[in-house]
Amino acid sequence: MTSLMKAELQKEFLKLFAAKPEHIFFCPGRVNLIGEHIDYNGGKVMPCAISLGTFLAVARNSDKLFRFRSLDFPETADLRLQASYSKTGKEWFNYPLGIIDQLLKEDHIVSGLDMLFYGNLPVGAGLSSSASIEVLTAFAIQTIFQLNISNPDIALLSKRVENEFIGVNCGIMDQFAVAMGRADKAILLNCDTLEYEYLPFQTGDYSLAIINSNKQRALAESKYNERFTECGAALKSLKKKLKVENLCDVDIPAFQAHRHLINDPVLEKRALHVISENERVKEAREVLSAGNLKRFGELMYASHESLKELYEVSGKELDAIVDFCKTYPGCIGARMTGAGFGGCAIALVKKDQFDDFSRQLTAYYQNKIGYDPGVFASAIGDGVRSL
Ligand code: GLA
Question: By three-state DSSP, how is residue 284 classified?
Answer without folding.
Answer: helix
